[in-house]
Each structure stands twice: as C-alpha cells, then as structure tokens.
Amino acid sequence: MAAETNAAPTGTPTTATPAAAATPAKPQAPAAAGEEPKLTPAQLKAKAKAEKAARRAQVKDARTAAATVPAPQQAGPDAKGPKGKGKPDGQPGQNKGPRPSMSGPRPIIEKDPRSTIPDLFSHVPMAKRVPLSQAHKDVHPAVLAAGQQMAAFNIKDSIARLEATLLAFAKVIEEYETPKGNSLSRHLIPHVLNPQIEYLTECRPMCFAMGNAIRLLKARINHIDINAPEKEAKEELLEWIGILINERIKLAEFVIARNAAEVIKDGATVVTYGRHRLVEKTVLKAKESGKSFNVTVIDDPFEGGGQELAKTLMEAGIPVLYSPNLGGLRPKVAAASNVFIGGEAIFANGSLNAASGTADVAMAAQRTGVEVIVLCETINFDRERVSVDSLTYNEIDPERSTTESFRLLFDNTQDNYIAGVVTEFESGGGNSPAQAILALLRKQEDPLIA
Predict the structure, then answer these.
(1) Which is nearest to 325 in space by CA: 352, 354, 361, 353?
(2) How many domains does the chain fold into?
(3) DSSP-assigned letters across all residues of 336-381
(4) I need a labelling partner for 4 at 20 to 30 A (CA). Which of 170, 278, 439, 449 fits?
(5) The CATH number of the domain where 265 resides is what?
(6) How many CA atoms lie within 13 A of 262 on its CB side?
(7) Distance CA 251, CA 229 (A)
(8) Is 347 among the domain residues?
C-alpha cells in the first residue's frame, strides 16, 4: 500500500465517559382507594413530559450541588467543616481524599461536556450516556442495550443504528400485551413505543434513517384494524419489520453496490473519503467483476477508518494510495476518474449530510472537473426538510469537546457539487440527480405503509 508522507495526527484522544450521579427518586405516595380516573391521551402525554422534566431537573440539581461543595479546609484537628449541605462526611479533622458517606461511597459526578459549548452552538445536540437508573421504567431491556451502544458509538453507522432500533422494537412488540379495554393500534404507540423512542433520542440524536423508519412504523400501526386480534396484529407488525430490514437495508445495500460498480471502468482511479460500507462493497464488487483499477483513500484524521478500508482493499488485490489527511487534496482528486462518497442523509433540496470533510473533497472534485457520485439508501432521504449549512442538522463529537474547541461530526455538501446519487430504486445504473429525491420517495414509500 502506497502511503502519503503527510503527518497523521499524533496521539489518540482519550474517550471520556461522562457519568451523572443520580439520586434515587422518592417513592410515590400510595394511590387513593378505588380506581384512578382515566386520563385522556393529552393528559397522559403531559404527564410523561412532566416526569421526564423532573428526572432532568433532578440530575441538574445533583450536578449543581456537587459543584458548590466547598473544598476541605487545611487546618488542624480543631477545624470544623462548614455547616449545612457543604459539611463533609466522615470523621472531623480528616481532609485527605474523598470521604465516604454513611450510606456508602459518594458517587463521582463528572462535569457535563456540554458546559464547554458556547451558547451560540447550544442548539447542536450531543450524544450522552444516560444512566440506567434514569431511564423510563417502561423502556425495554433490548432498547436500553441499543441506546447505551449508540451513546458510546459502538454502533455508529446510521444504517447499523437503524437495524439495531428495528430489532429492539421487534422485541418490544413481541413481548407486548394489550391491556384490557384497549386496542393495540391505539395503545402501543403512546404508551409503549414513545418511551423507547424518547430514551434512544436522549442517548444520541436520532439519525435520519431511524426517524423515517419510526414514522413508517407508526403509520403501519395506525393502519391496523382496531378490532384485529392481538396475536394477528403483532405477527403482522413483526413481518413488516422483517420486510423493512430486508428490502431497505440488506437488498438496498446489494443493489447500490451492483449499480455503482458499473460506473467504475477498467484503468480508472477511484477516490473516496474515510470508510463507508457502501463504497467498500462497491469497490469490491467491481473487483469481483474482473475490472482493474486503482483506489485513493483520503482518510478522516480524527476517525482513521480509511486505514482499515485501505487494508481491506489491498487484501483483495486492489492497488491503493493512502493519505492520512486532507493535505494535498486537489492534485489527488484531479487524478481521479470518479469520487465515490457515502451519505448520511440527503435533504429535499438535494444537499448531502455526510462525515466532516466530505464537503472539502466534493468541492475539490467539482473544481477539477471530476464527477462526485453519492451512494445512499432511500431510507436516509428526508423529503420534509432542507439544509444549506452544517449547523442546522448536526452533532457535536462528545469525545472531542473541550473549553478550547469542539468538533462537528457531519458537514453539508450542496447539490451543485454532486453529479449523481446511486440508490436502490433506479434502473440503468441507478445514477440520479440529487434533486430527484422527492420523485424517488413517492415511488417507494406508499407500498410499505399499505
């Protein structure tokens, strides 16, 4: 593997693991004798919001209390600690290290990583690890596990997050039992699914694929006959989730790789940025068809996924030039036949949401006359919203957020820098203009709901 001489960033940032101390909630008072009055859906929703706000306020108060505890005084054995809440636990006169309380070790409260973000960017969300003790009591264990993995970025790719969410929801539906006096189509969404969705969103901002799939799932539930037997309705929903995973994830991945591989010609030089599974499968598919070509991998210096991609392609017998960062970008792109990029989402105005650094590669390619081809499943398309900058829909990297700087996970590439988009719903190579997104969505979404 040829390697660039550009110096890669030294050191690996330490992954901070934010932990919030949660004070156990006080048990609610026993209910009055007799049946409780039946609440309307609006009242139930308001009650759930109030409970969620109370939990957040509880965590905030705990952090504030920890931040206001005075430091131990350096004095002799006659010194007395401050009165009230700030009084240290343990024996008087000892001020060496943390002091355990009577009920056990004092929980460690780390600083909120969002406290370093300027107010100007306070609207940009950030993933966080939600303690299990703060999760809603109705959140299913499968959803708890998925949320923790997403918050820790063990599940990072948008499609991987979508599949994990759908499989977790399938477990929820499989174990669901409709209460007496209710119907599945009216009870499942507000009382069961919504707490799962709120928890996942609290762990990490929902990706576009997850949002689209949840919208389709809710529409499918609402289409179920109110008098349908529970077993039949559950089997229908589980079958629908299986079809969604097979058609919109597995089959879509295969078709996109096959269609995009047709664009690669013998003797071509393909440039890609970072590591995206669709680009990787496309290049390997082209190699399997007997084509001979070269690949230039320009890596994201913060993620380093391009290095793994380069190793995989070399093992498949593909000549690879690896660049550890964006240094010398323009001459590398100018020598390419095509630039292949994987997309996180495509908006209604044709702009692309992808890993930070993608816009730089696309702009360099457009200025040198090289076509930029985006590979993206239609489940990642957003037909309701438009984007013209990188601050409206983005995330802050929780591992690289300090008082001096922070990093955004994605950037925005305008549609005029994109020559075409390869999806699973197009024939003849599947290469469509980015502006054709709405027509593509109209072609494929309605059959999934019906």
Answers:
(1) 361
(2) 1
(3) -SEEEEE-SEE-TTS-EEEETTHHHHHHHHHHTT-EEEEE--GGGB
(4) 278
(5) 3.40.50.10470
(6) 11
(7) 31
(8) yes
